Amino acid sequence: MPGKEKLAVLPLRGVLVFPYMVLHLDVGRERSISAIEHSMGEDNRIVLMAQKDSKKSEPTESDLHQVGTEARIKQMIKLPGGTLRILVEGLNRVKILNYVSGEQFLEAEAAFVEDDQTKTPEIEAQMRSVLEQFEQYIKINQKVPPETLSSVSDIEEPGRFTDVIASHLTMKIEQKQELLEAIEIEGRLEKLNEILSREMEIQEIERKINLRVRKQMEKTQKEYYLREQMKAIQKELGEKDERMAEAEEYREKVAEAKLPDEVEEKALKEIDRLEKMPPAAAEGTVIRTYLDWLLELPWGSETDDCLDLDVAEDILDEDHYGLKNVKERIIEYLAVRQLANELKGPILCLIGPPGVGKTSLAKSVARAMERNFVRISLGGVRDEAEIRGHRRTYIGALPGRIIQGMREAKSRNPVFLMDEIDKMSTDFRGDPSSALLEVLDPEQNHTFSDHYVEVPFDLSQVMFITTGNTSFNIPQALRDRMELIHIPGYTEEDKVEIARQYLIPKQIKENGLTDKNLELSEGAVRRIIREYTREAGVRNLERSISAICRKVAREVVKERYNKVKLNRQNLQKYLGVPRYRYGSAEKQDEIGVATGLAWTESGGDLLSIEVTLMKGKGKMTLTGQLGEIMQESAKAAMSYIRSRAETLQLKENFYEEVDIHIHVPEGAIPKDGPSAGIAMATALASAFTRIPIRKDVTMTGEITLRGRVLPVGGVKEKMLAAHRAGIKTMVMPAENRRDLSDIPQNVRRKVEVKLVEHMDEVLEMALTELVSKSDKEEHRPEHAVREDDLDLPANGQDSSIRH
């Protein structure tokens, strides 16, 4: 029908109608129903336009394509709910020229597009190619009936030919719209050819996939059928198949293992699952691994303890020198075991500096009790699953370190060492220290639950020994469950004995020497301890002895000497220049320099506190990487000095004319804690009064604003440090009197301890002169701090205030 005409428009969602195509459409939108009713009142003709976006329920003019199909409504049926079902037949392509505004439905002025039905040789060739491909498409695709091919073959008009074939293809709406908008016959045939080629390729791939899947299914069914036949034959012959034999073997192992009832029930249940699984099932491997773990754990096997106290004492003394508290605790446990058969294993925590023998002591405990020994390191552990294991749902899941250690121990009552318990950390994967609460709680660990094992395991007979360098890094809840035993650093006498009894014989043997090759005098050992090592333990001492043995071994091999005698004089030839200065106390009495004491993870150490004064306005500077608590101690010390200005013969505003600089050397090392309070106050008093501090006095204690001296920790380590440095007098809080019982007698004899309760007592002992009102005129000018006392250079820069 040539020309143009105004017709109602029916928007279509998800469907497109080609010319010559007959199709049922269900219509429910009000405007679409109005358009159909209008067309039925006219000549049953309507324009079918595909929507660009099928999700829009109320499309406007811009939401529709420009090319559509003129169609005739051949039938209309009203359905329940107000919906219409119409049968339409496509007539011609139409192109929308413009839309006519209508409130009830869309109406547009449409131009009809007539197809050129001329058949050129090129068009004929393309039609034959399309027909051949369509024939192959019908053979592969079962959805298109075979008689369609004969009806299409009879069509001579090229336009109708392309539209009929396109209506039978499975394509996207966008591809159908492209064909509908292809006005030129040659272009339409070429596009149809491309679509058919692509569809054929996809159909072929689908066919191959389906064939492969079908073959696999047939193979699986065949294997199943053959296995069922094999089972029947084996049953007739009285034989067992591989799976049944494996399950039977596991059942025999379970019966021999004498597992607890709950564990046995779980194991038999898993064996039943394994027996019913196909051999190639991936979960079968998981179940086998799980059963192996269950059967290898020591559910009932345990070793007999050696309860002979004398033998145990001899073994502990043979392996370690000193460590009285730990040895006594082990002997006490064995004594109680003799009296009470049922006793839960103790949970000990050995706290001490590196190198004092915490780890090796745990091995000696196991040897003394004749128990198996197992060790795990907790340093750097930050995942809860390291302790409790992973659930079996995860690929490659394994039990936690506790259960792994118990399998390694092969008994339910080993000595279990958890090394570096203070080095654990926390992240998003959980808190391992919280997981250890159950392990190290005697009231809970008899039913320890590992995520992998899934059944309770009894840890109550295990002797747990944990080690760490400091206790404050261990969470309070975990620390509360353990019996803390502090192992202090060794004294010089201890180290000499350890070297003589243990280290020298060990290193001589390890380096292939004999007693005839090397003789190390006591004086040489003491010099190594004093000038080549500075530690609480003996690791560096052992390294130094090892270095000497290696050099002696080289000389023996070169036949220079058969025997080497080392003493204090020739030691430097083998170890080089001394690394440390023994007795690092001050060489002379100095103003503003006090010797304090510090406690570190490596033991005690001396701490020099220097105070210098400069012209200024009362500003206080603190340097040396001092922590917040130490800075507060310095401020408290300064407040005390200001409050005692009259006693110290200082004028009221003495602090307003100077700037104060407090420095603690070795600035690269962070320092914190309140125990340097009295040392800071003494240094400040010395700097302001210009009275030197005695070089042979060291001190430790916390100071209050009223001048009271409060107790501090680490007394033994600090006193050992003072002894190492050659200090003669140590000032400490009176409330620390109880800690003196831990100090070795040889150290007590060489270091005089002065117990004080108030800062005034400290100043009387530490300063070389007494400060009082009576001797004001004899020792002090009118006021303590004067410009000439500060010894400042002309340019105002600071200079040394040392006496």
Word description of this protein:
The protein is α/β, with parallel strands linked by helices. 42% of the residues lie in helices and 18% in strands. The chain has 27 helices and 24 strands. A hairpin with a 5-residue loop joins strand 4 and strand 5. The chain starts with a strand and ends in a 13-residue tail after the last helix. Mean pLDDT is 82; it is low at 772-803.
Structural descriptors:
803 residues; alpha/beta; 7-stranded mixed β-sheet; 5-stranded mixed beta barrel; disordered C terminus
Write the layout of secondary structure elements.
Elements lengths: L3 E9 L9 E6 L2 H12 L3 E6 L16 E12 L5 E17 L5 E8 L7 H20 L6 H7 L4 H11 L4 H9 L3 H53 L4 H16 L3 H16 L5 H15 L12 H11 L4 H16 L7 E5 L6 H12 L3 E5 L7 H4 L12 H9 L5 E5 L12 H8 L8 E2 L6 E2 L5 E6 L7 H5 L2 E4 L5 H19 L7 E3 L1 H11 L6 H19 L6 E3 L5 H4 L17 E8 L2 E13 L4 E4 L4 H16 L14 E6 L13 H13 L7 E3 L2 E2 L5 E2 L4 H10 L4 E5 L11 H6 L1 E5 L2 H8 L9 H4 L7 H4 L13
Parallel strand pairs: 1-3, 7-12, 7-13, 8-9, 9-12, 14-15, 16-20, 18-19, 20-23, 23-24
Antiparallel strand pairs: 1-6, 2-5, 3-4, 4-5, 5-6, 10-11, 16-17, 17-19, 21-22
Identify low-pLDDT runs: 772-803
Counting H and I runs of at least 4 residues, what is the number of helices? 27
Task: Quote the average pLDDT.
Answer: 82
Spatial order of strands in the largest sheet: 18-19-17-16-20-23-24
Principal-axis shape: elongated
Helix-strand category: alpha/beta
| Strand tally | 24
